[in-house]
Give the backbone structure.
Amino acid sequence: MTISGESHQKIDAYLKRVRKALRGMPSDDADEIIAELHSHILDRAAAGGGEAAAAGRGEATVDGGEAPVAGVDAAIHGLGSPESLASQYATEALMIRAQVSRSPVVLMQSLFRWAGLSAAGFFVCLGALVGYVLAAVLLLCALVKPFRPHTAGLWTSNGADGLNLGFHLGFGASTPQGKEILGWWIIPIGLALGYGLFVWTTRCALWSVRQYRNSRELRRS
Amino acid sequence: MSPTLPLDRDSPDKWEVQLRKGCLELAILASLWGGELYGLEILRRLASDSELIVSEGTVYPLLSRLKSLGLLESKWVESDAGHPRKYYLLTPAGRERAIEMAQIWVRFSTGLGKLLLPLGKGTA
């Protein structure tokens, strides 16, 4: 089977979208993925539509009676949408990076990239961001307290809009309004809670990535 | 007693999918035991030898992960088809992992097989 010019355009258009969705990945890695997918589509197309269904879904007959589309279309269909394919590469890469480094910076970078590819990624990214920021605030409060005891800590105030609870990092000039709670206890509590939240956020984020990855495989297989 | 969840109705299917998915990594490593293959050959091998129903969109990212983990390595080879293909082969670590997983698998299935023996008689 020879491949027509129109098919080449189709392949190029598809790969261009995948390449775009892979942005943020090291460009050598992305180039190699594109080259591999290109090679796959050509081979799959050359083998013909019937074989495409047979190799991809175990048996040609399980395809709900739907006649196999022409080679290139079937090959592209088998790979899935550019975004979902890129999202799977991104989550695989994310898990690898997470195994190598527990740094929240590395994790957040990967999550930001993933957030651009799927709704699930967006929410996990948002959750992790909130978790890390809160953990950082707790730790900062505890660390600054010894140096600025009157301005760092946890304050409450009964304003017009009800009870407010606020952390003050001690960078302001004046003592905050309201009543300080915890006092010096902010140091042990802040350190323990901050550290706990930090670890917990990392775990939850990785757990979500794993769940997502599993559910994708489940749905696509 | 808590009421039965609606999820339970289709759980044997879901269970099977989970089971197959859990074996996918071992299946890929095993498919490369006899020598290097490129992606499409791995897919064909999985489909013909193990009835593992997997999509390309799952296998290629997984191959790239196994490579990052150092279990596989890859090389580009020119083909008669006029375009190069990316071949995968097991690294020593990959061979080791495949053997370990295969041992666990055999131990597990032998043990479970004993337990399932009476059920087989029931359905026969």
Summary: Residues 14-123 of chain B form a domain with the Arc Repressor Mutant, subunit A fold (CATH 1.10.10.10).
